[in-house]
Please model this.
Amino acid sequence: MVHAGDRAARAVVGPSDLHLHSDHSDGTEPPAQVMVAAHTAGLRTVALTDHDTTSGWAEAAEAAGSLGMTLVPGMELSARYEHRSVHVLGYLFDPEDAGLRALTDRIRTSRITRARTMADRIGRDYDLTWDDIVAQTAEGATVGRPHLADALIARGHVRDRGEAFADILHPGSDYYVSLYAPDPVTAVAAIADAGGVPIIAHPAGRAGLLPRKLVEAMLEAGLAGFELEHRENEEPALSRLRSLVSARDLIATGSSDYHGRGKPNVPGENTTTDAMVARIIARASGSAPVHP
Ligand code: AMP
Ligand code: FE
Ligand code: FE
Ligand code: ZN
Model:
């Protein structure tokens, strides 16, 4: 579908939103429907970035093409630093790369065990079984806490995902179990080694910036930039990061992090400039954008 050899030097035209989820992970819509939502919002270039999987790429590419949009294939790779979850967006890597595949296989397998354990724990206090979670998860999808949230909603225990995350699914809850995730440097290197372009997602969220030493190690490992325009980024961390990005001439992106009905985020609420999309494409060697 997407081969590095197909890379005609075609300019990408915006508006571009480089972070959207489908039901191949914790979005609520199939990839084709995500593409329709993006197109309706006026976008012309989009990336599908499901958590720890590339399984939605083919459907997304076909749908984007039929709508006249360009697809930048991507993924949001799970990583962890101490007790903090770190999300590394990867663009235009080789989806067949053995190292990256081994890593995502391991994460997705651990996510199943973890979701089962959390479901068992929750099931001691609430009417909820593993079948309820299975019913909320598309076949083969990367399972996560959002699917547990959807099962809790279906059973009437909470109103929405936000309410589930605030309490039952919160990392501080007795029901919480962590998933296997590589350290951020390993995650960045895995994407870079697969010919992709690693960008830290929502890097200035409530937990604040990652330590400077870790950022330097990630840059050393091939980190290309940061998702500066994202609704979860907060001041003053964001301004500090902007300074770093401009001082080091890093790539800066802006995206919605659309999850269908799973979050209030809407396609195109933040966008990435054509110049930055061009830099991502120029830096990648693993795969190419899919043009209509
Ligand atoms: P997990 O990776 O399974 O621990 O789940 C984390 C995912 O849950 C993230 O990718 C978010 O998309 C989603 N998430 C986190 N907080 C919320 C929230 N308050 N409402 C809806 N989704 C959330
Ligand atoms: Fe998510
Ligand atoms: Fe994320
Ligand atoms: Zn995301």
Summary: The mean pLDDT is 96. The first helix runs from residue 31 to 40. The CA atoms of residues 142 and 275 lie 32 Å apart.
